[in-house]
Amino acid sequence: MRPVSARERRLVALLILFGIVAAIHFLVVGPILANFQMRADRSDRLALTYTHNVRTIATIPRLRRQAEAARAATASFVAAVPNVDAGREWLKERLQAAVEGAGGTFREGGDAEGRPGWARARAAARMTLPQLTAALARLQNQPPWLVVETVSLSAGNTIVPGQSPVMDVEIEASIPIRPAAAR
To answer: Is residue 168 classed exposed, middle or buried when 0-12, 13-18 and 19+ CB atoms within 10 A define those classes?
Structure first.
């Protein structure tokens, strides 16, 4: 083996020094810088989360007012009754009041099967077309609003000119129910 010259020794020393610097960079400095970057990213995420939370907390009064308004509006769309049977009875009474309030003759009220969470009832009556119109308007324009599902009409053969014929009418209506809170 031949002796190594001074220039080659310097090159070998520089390569070893470069290797040591690279190793220190990849083994020590790199992970430290990556840790600083990770902490900076985490700090940014936490700052964004904090800003989001502050905005959310600031909206709580508005959200509370909206929830209270929605809760109050629910009373206009849902019947607060203890159970489905009580809901059917309430609905039959409402149908009877609408028919009699319009001037018709209420004949009978009956139960009808509805979807879960809904009360459904039917009413049979005798009335004229203007009375039917008034009864339907009364049913649909007073809260809590209900759904008139079917209206069946059968008019007799006796038609008197100038008078509205008396018809047999069957109305089926339903309304969503919410069990009333026990007091």
So the answer is: middle
User: Of the candidates 86, 79, 107, which has an alpha carbon nearest to the alpha carbon of residue 95?
Assistant: 107
Q: What is the pLDDT along the chain (183 residues), one digit of tens a residue?
A: 788 888 988 999 999 999 999 999 999 999 999 999 999 999 999 999 999 999 999 999 999 999 999 888 877 888 888 888 888 999 999 999 999 999 999 999 888 887 888 999 999 999 988 999 999 999 888 888 888 999 999 876 656 666 778 889 999 999 898 876 544
As a whole number of angstroms, the distance between CA 183 and CA 181 comes to 6
Q: Are 164 and 103 in contact (CB under 8 A)?
A: no
Beta-bridge partner residues of 111:
121
β-strand 167-179 against 79-81: which pairing, if any? Answer: parallel
Look up tokens 């010259």; give the residue: 5
Q: 26-64: b or e for each residue (b if 16 or more CB lie within 10 Å)?
A: eeeeeeeeeeeeeeeeeeeeeeeeeeeeeeeeeeeeeee
